[in-house]
């Protein structure tokens, strides 16, 4: 009974912690007393292939002991991916508050040590271009993580806390997408350094710029709200910066999603690859254009002469979350993403998303999951039928938007969600108060804390790949420009 009371007190401390240090200390103590530490120390588990992982760890250790960099390259080429042996199984996160099996952590550490070793290997043994080729090919095969910031109107300032927490722990991915309210935060990430973001993403600074974003205009005037204050805030923040400008400034691969305001178009992903000359300010304004709430927007771009001109003339775009709240598949094609971290505040999705870490188990859970998927498929089919039968263009467009909302996927591999409750609805379309923003940002930070350890493990290898690949690319540029001479190989006479 005493142990149970102690664990309950620790759980209360975890839930009410005022800093990550307090949260982590209580979580570690809970794991020690609950027996989770013993679970971590035992390799064996039905939830992953511990024999495969143990063998792979030993092979990498042996190769490093022999100073065999080519052997390490062969082992990593042989088959390294984020879920080798099912180590990313979400069931493994259920047994403890933080951490995982020591063997899994050892595997991650050993892979990164192998990459350190290969990068530092003598170029008499591994030629520079062989190293570069290895890191390019293997990093692409391994993939990387993305952060996706959902729509959510005024609730979207929750993302500020998520981004702050990730920056403070050096865990912000390079690939980021934002839809609707999330596009504002994504654009800030695209155009600011980490230190600038920490200074900007505070209740005081956000309130100063967005305190009057919601100004009632009334029906019959094209939109319910006047967008002037929102547009002025966006112009102040982003001016005429293009996506290419932003990428050159921060190196972050930031995407903003927009949805078509008419039929026969698809949602667009605006970023430095697909639309380098598009102006970020107009992209964000379009992505925030909730139907009827704000009017749709004509995108703008900077042409070769430096002039600001219409982008995709004669077309207007609206709320990005309507059709591409979480554009994972297209990010995968563009940037080699195969793992997602989602900050989800969309009021159409959050009430229905599970807070548990476990997959569906048992007959009842599996049946429930199947019935939900079946209901979704049937709803999409019904909207397709209605769209084909109803003649009115405006009605067709409305049905098409509803279909898109239902047909989307709103979750990722790691999900950061606000607490459920009707109280959060007050943030949707009202002007924020400084105290309200402070509460939202704090909620975002606290919701991120339980996921930080998992995010660190999930991104550890890809971050190491990216770190060394950037160094090698920088050196390649020096070699190609003649600023550096490649060392000659001993046995080739080159």
Record keyword descriptors for this entry.
494 residues; 53% helix; single chain; alpha/beta
Taking pLDDT < 50 over at least 5 consecutive residues as the criterion, the unreliable ranges are 490-494
Helix content: 40-55%
Q: In one word, what is the shape?
A: globular
Distance between the termini: 75 Å
Structure at a glance:
With 494 residues, the protein is α/β, with parallel strands linked by helices. The chain has helices at residues 2-16, 20-34, 36-41, 50-65, 69-79, 102-120, 128-142, 158-168, 181-191, 194-200, 203-210, 228-238, 243-250, 280-287, 321-324, 328-335, 362-389, 393-407, 434-480; strands spanning 144-149, 175-179, 215-216, 225-226, 253-260, 268-270, 300-302, 308-310, 317-318, 337-343, 414-416. The model is unreliable at 490-494 (pLDDT under 50).
Q: How does this structure look, described?
A:
Helix 4 packs antiparallel against helix 5. With 494 residues, this protein is an alpha/beta fold. The chain is 53% helix and 9% strand. The protein has 19 helices and eleven strands. It is globular, with a radius of gyration of 25 Å.
């Amino acid at each position: 009974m005493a142990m149970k009371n102690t664990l309950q007190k620790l759980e209360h401390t975890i839930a009410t912690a005022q800093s990550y240090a307090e949260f982590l200390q209580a979580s570690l103590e809970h794991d020690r007393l609950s027996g989770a530490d013993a679970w971590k120390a035992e390799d064996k588990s039905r939830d992953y292939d511990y024999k495969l992982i143990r063998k792979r760890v030993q092979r990498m250790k042996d190769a490093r002991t022999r100073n065999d960099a080519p052997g390490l390259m062969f082992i990593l080429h042989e088959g390294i991916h984020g879920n080798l042996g099912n180590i990313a199984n979400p069931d493994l996160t259920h047994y403890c508050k933080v951490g995982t099996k020591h063997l899994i952590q050892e595997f991650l550490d050993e892979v990164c040590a192998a990459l350190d070793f290969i990068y530092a290997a003598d170029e008499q043994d591994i030629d520079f271009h062989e190293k570069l080729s290895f890191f390019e090919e293997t990093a692409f095969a391994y993939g990387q993580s993305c952060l996706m910031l959902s729509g959510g109107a005024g609730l979207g300032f929750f993302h500020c806390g998520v981004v702050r927490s990730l920056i403070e722990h050096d865990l912000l991915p390079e690939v980021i997408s934002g839809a609707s309210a999330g596009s504002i935060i994504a654009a800030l990430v695209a155009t600011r350094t980490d230190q600038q973001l920490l200074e900007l993403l505070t209740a005081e600074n956000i309130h100063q710029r967005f305190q009057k974003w919601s100004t009632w205009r009334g029906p019959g005037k094209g939109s319910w709200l006047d967008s002037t204050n929102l547009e002025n805030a966006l112009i102040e923040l982003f001016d005429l910066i293009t996506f290419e400008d932003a990428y050159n400034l921060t190196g972050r691969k930031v995407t903003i999603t927009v949805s078509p305001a008419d039929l026969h178009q698809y949602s667009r992903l605006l970023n430095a690859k697909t639309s380098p000359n598009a102006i970020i300010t107009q992209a964000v304004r379009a992505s925030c254009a909730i139907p009827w709430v704000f009017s749709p927007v004509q995108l703008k771009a900077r042409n070769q002469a430096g002039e600001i001109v219409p982008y995709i003339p004669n077309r207007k775009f609206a709320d990005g979350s309507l059709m591409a709240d979480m554009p994972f598949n297209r990010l995968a094609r563009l940037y080699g993403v195969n793992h997602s971290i989602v900050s989800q505040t969309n009021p159409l999705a959050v009430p229905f998303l599970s807070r548990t870490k476990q997959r569906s188990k048992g007959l009842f859970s599996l049946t429930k999951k199947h019935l939900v998927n079946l209901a979704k498929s049937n709803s999409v089919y019904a909207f397709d039928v209605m769209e084909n039968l109803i003649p009115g263009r405006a009605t067709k467009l409305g049905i098409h938007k509803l279909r898109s909302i239902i047909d989307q996927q709103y979750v990722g591999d790691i999900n950061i969600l606000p607490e459920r409750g009707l109280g959060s609805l007050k943030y949707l379309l009202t002007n924020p108060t400084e105290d309200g923003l402070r509460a939202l940002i704090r909620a975002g930070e606290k919701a991120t804390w339980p996921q930080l350890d998992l995010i660190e493990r999930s991104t550890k290898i890809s971050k190491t790949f990216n770190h060394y690949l950037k160094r090698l690319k920088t050196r390649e540029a020096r070699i190609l420009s003649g600023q550096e001479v490649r060392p000659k190989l001993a046995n080739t006479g080159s």
